[in-house]
Amino acid sequence: MATGPDTAALRQVIQDQLKLSRRLKDRVAELEARTHAPVAVVGTAMRLPGGIDTPEAYRTFLYAPDPDSRALGPIPEDRTGLRSVYHPERGKEGHSYVDRAGFLDDIASFDAAFFGISQREAETMDPQQRMLLEVAWEALERGGIAARRQDRMPIGVFVGVMASEYGRRFVHDGDYSRIDPYHSTSSGHCFVAGRISYALGLSGPATSVDTACSSSLVAVHQAVRALRGGECDYALAGGANLILGADLMVSLCQGEALSPGGRSRSFLADADGYGRGEGVGMVALMRLDDALAQGHPVLAVVRGSAVNHDGASSGFTVPSGPAQQEVIRAALADARVAPGAVGYIEAHGTGTALGDPIEVGALDAVLGTGAGERTAPVALGSVKARIGHLEAAAGIAGVLKLVLMLGDGTVPAGAQPGDGRLNPLIPWDRIALNVPRETAPWAGAPEERTAGISAFGLSGTNAHAVLSSYRPAPAAPADVPADHPELLTLSAKDPRALAELSGRVQEALTGLDAAGVASLCHTLRAGRVHFGHRLAVVGTDAATLADALAAGQPDGVRSADRVVLETGADTAVLDGALTELARHFPGLGEATGKEGTPAARLRAVLTLLGVKTTLAGGDPAAPGARITAGGQSLTLVGDAPADAPRLLIEALAALYRGGAPVRLDRLGAPGAVFTDAPTYPFQRKRFWIEETAPEPSHPVTVAVAPTRTLPLNRAEIGAYLTTELAVVLKADCGLDPDVPFCDVGGDSFTAMLLTKSVEQQYGVDLPTLDCPVEMPVADLLDHLSDQVCVAMGVDK
Asked: Which helix (H) or strand (E) holds 598?
């Protein structure tokens, strides 16, 4: 006899399936959130033209009241090769017509001892590697990340680098005698990121990126992906660019890519090429949730990024508007940000007649008129106009600028009053983009500040990132207990560095309230690596701590390997002391709140702080508790439990000064967070191999152009172009007229060289010839002949 369905069992199956479905949906949402997780910028560091070596200096420069201030200057005296190839005449073979750029003030000095590098190796090492080591260290310190070499912290390193020209000076006229075993590790691109990871003892991915001018923004993109994917918990991302050799400078001038005046005139009518610049920059990154949980500063947030390639564009080195639109849309999708939310764009903006209109058109199509209704146009700027195009480091220079802008809520001028009119090839009156002429507040509420940044490589690799400001929910004021004692620790690898650091910290203490003092001391204790030369002082306010630093200190406890803890018989006093320790130092709650005797809990407190003790028998006549180390007795708990916080940190100060490996990250007062604090004062020495300058092949004099005869007819022009195209392409066997131009190696450089050739042959000025790369050679030659005839007024 048939029976009906088991209703209860069916109901259970349905409920189980619903639970499974909900779990699967939650898991998908979790994975989706991780894929798009925001990344916090927690620290920054830089070396930029104009003596900019701190965020404060960069901020001052960007908002300088002098609107014409630019960090451009002549070729330094010690760049012998660059100086030797300079010639003011454009097009002169083997020479550069540029004698100005955004140069760094000092690239030869380095604190080799700090990084454990010998003088011999330091002299051989590319200065880019040296400077990247310094800015990597500073970015970590500003982020409150103590990268102890022995800890092998999961920090990834992603560095953009394009040229490595320093190694060329070790070979002259075929003489290789100056090359030693350090030459390869000091010059190769792969060692740029690896050097940082090795020197700092990092375990995350280490990747050097070379995509030309987009290198450092691609490095940021890769760092964000690595953090989201769990490959590392922290990341360093940045780039470096130094102008040390003549080869690239000459090549760029032969291609007329550079502005004769050495300045990038971004989006201006008189844009005539880009101006080169030097620089090194780095950001320290963390997943936003982790940064907030650990109390690290959040300077800005990377919401999303994307990278693509131009593909089969109109020329290998010609920018592609459609590809730029694609990468911007992909970055917005990754950031989960609507195009209309973007209020500012740090553009690539090299200042070329061809590149700027293409970029502005792509930006407008996505973020301007393409974004629909806007309450205000998108502000547009490029720091290249002020410091030069930093090539491999251009992207990180722009990111560092955005971090300051988003935090300050201020948009600097994108064009200066004396710059003249904007590029007339860009329809400014019909697009939703503008170039501000003066510094102004960011439009909208602080929590709504969103910006994009673009970087386009000469190789065709494009990158775009979306950043936003971060404004946490209002928090209650830090409840620092009255008369809270603070332990301020400083250390260095060199006595002079320690004295210099002490002076900087004394200045930083000026005017700080209790919460500020608590955060500064917490940063110096928990956000710094501790070295052999040490200072440690105790005080309850900024003035007391500064005076103590200025006065010096007694010696510490030496030979503290064996520490004995003795406790008295009065458990009530110990219980009261532990309660006071928990109130002043919440990070010790894991030990003070444990079960067990007061003596055992106090020992657990010391263990948390890195002090390993042997517990001795109680002494009824002794104070509440004391430790004996290195032949000295240090009181931890006296008759009054309220004194326990001060006595504990005084004992820790003595141990710290003596070199004990104490761990002080648990001593933060209530509400203490990582904050801006003076970074390590590197003690630099000059490491530099002088360059042997080649003898100039021609006297540096301005040549007088010879008199030339204009062509008689189109046939003469066509014959000349046919011959010259083969010469330009070095086609010894001639050119197949039916083959597409791109298949014989034709590109935008070919068009530029043909233009120069016609100008020299016939003594005229022409716009760059339009060379459709897919056109067959024969059709192209006809097309070019028509162009030249029109430009020269010759009948077709």
From this structure: helix 598-608
Categorize the per-residue pLDDT at 68 as very low, low, confident or very high, splitting at 50, 70 and 90. low
DSSP state of 48: B
The yes-or-no verdict on residue 1 having pLDDT over 60 is no
Structure tokens at 717: 């022009």
How many helices (H) and strands (E) are present in the chain, helices listed first?
Answer: 24, 23
For residue 382, give the amino acid letter: S
Kindly state the tokens that stand for 671.
Answer: 């509400």
Structure tokens at 43: 């620290």
**Sign of the dihedral through C-alpha 367, 368, 372, 375:** positive
User: Residue 132: helix, strand or coil by DSSP?
Assistant: helix
Residue 576's CB: how many other CB atoms inside 10 A?
Answer: 18
Report d(CA 214, CA 369) in Å as an integer.
26
pTM score: 0.89
Pairing mode, strands 378-381 and 433-434: parallel
User: 404-418, pLDDT tens digit by residue?
Assistant: 999 999 999 999 878
Q: Write the DSSP string, 750-793.
A: HHHHHHHHHHHHHT---PPP---TTSBHHHHHHHHHHHHHHHHT
Q: Are 419 and 349 in contact (CB under 8 A)?
A: no
Give dist(CA 502, CA 507) in Å, integer.
9
Q: How far is CA 114 from the centre of its chain?
A: 22
Alpha helices in 378-437 (DSSP H): 384-387, 394-408
Task: Provide the pLDDT for residue 591.
Answer: 86
